[in-house]
Amino acid sequence: MKVLQHLCIAAAMVLTSMSPANAWMSADGAMNLSIGAGHYLLNEEVQRAARAGRGGIGTEVSKPAQANARFTRSTSVAGLDMLVGYFPPGQRAQMRQGFLALHNSYPQVARQLGVPTNDVASGMASFLAGAYMAYNNQTLSNGYVKPLAHQFRNGLASQRDFARVSNADKQRMYDVMVMLGMLMATTQVQLQKQPDPALEAQMRQLGKQMIEGFLKVDASRLRITSSGMRIV
Fold it and tell me: How many degrees, rounded to 5, is the angle at CA 204 between CA 106 and CA 86?
């Protein structure tokens, strides 16, 4: 718990101190992660469905939609480098180890969630689920993540620009979202076992900023259910 708590506190302090624009900037400043992620996440079709309470915009996801969100993994660690780069030099080695451990554990979690790995929509769903858990200090049923991923996958498929996002950028976005989502979700689960009011407050703030920076709506309006996300 101490290692996870240190990682979470350090991440919360750094990430919540950044403006939404800076929080999603790549390590070299060349591309904002909203390109292919936040920019596409709550497009008009997904937004209308969320406000209307229609979960996955249809339960079936076409093969082109699946292919659009997926990428072929390379040995690149650009996403990890980007996250670690936000921390002071003296903390980077420890933060790298912590984030890498979270990333390596995600494939097993993805199997439990019923979502594919190396898939941007899965990364989005896992990220938002983790932020939702952190903000509300509550666990979320594993079964809620797959419909959420369906929403994002269909939303991404409807965006022509996203089809032009490179394999490398998809992997970077996915890796960042997976690591942050795992950090928030895992910490929240630990808080259920070992309550810590100070850490809970930091997690709530981190979850709030992640939700609002990603969806551009007040965090209190987000609902995640067995049908996916809904904006109230």
Answer: 60
